[in-house]
């Protein structure tokens, strides 16, 4: 049996497709495309810091950055995992305040549970959490991060907060820039 249709029979076959079928096809296409959404990252703010606050200044002080918020664009942007980590890395020439009250929250009643600040060092803050499923939209927020430059005399000291860890999060890449830090 010949599987080829003459051109005129093929065009009749295509034109006989109902508009409802085409509408369903395009709805499926649009829905499938939205599944490929990515986490939206609200970056920390406050990265322009006075050199007078550096660790070697007369009156050193830490600057509190704004919240870092990761919001799923589509369910499943946070992959399922137990005890997964997200790290926030300080750039060279900058330190975190290890005594700061850094906190992590997640939207209650969703897939992210058990979120804690696992550790805080002068260069890395580690967040640990569980992702129990991919059926609900999640938001993970880190607050209270404080930074300061190690040497105020180095006006050129600038760098970026970056991300790392073991969690699989759509679009959160190793070394992704979360905030640019610079001295004024």
Quick structural gist:
With 184 residues, this protein is mostly beta strands. 14% of the residues lie in helices and 36% in strands. Residues 17-36 have low confidence and may be disordered.
Describe this structure in words.
The protein is mainly beta and 184 residues long. It has one domain (40-183): Sandwich (Immunoglobulin-like). Helices cover 14% and strands 36% of the residues. It contains two helices and 13 strands. The strands form three sheets. A six-stranded mixed β-sheet has the order 2-13-12-5-9-8, with no helix packed on it. Strand 8 (112-120) and strand 9 form a beta hairpin. The chain is elongated, with a radius of gyration of 24 Å. The termini are far apart. The relative contact order is 0.24. Mean pLDDT is 78; it is low at 17-36.
Structural class: mainly beta
Radius of gyration from the alpha-carbon trace, in angstroms: 24 Å
Distance between the termini: 79 Å
- In CATH terms, what is the architecture? Sandwich
- In terms of per-residue confidence, which ranges show pLDDT below 50 for 5 or more consecutive residues? 17-36
Residue share in β-strands? 35-45%
The helix count comes to 2
Shape: elongated
One letter per element, helices H and strands E, the order comes to: HHEEEEEEEEEEEEE
Largest sheet: 6 strands, mixed
CATH topology: Immunoglobulin-like
Helical proportion, percent range: 10-25%
Count the beta strands.
Answer: 13
Average pLDDT confidence is 78
User: What is the total domain count?
Assistant: 1
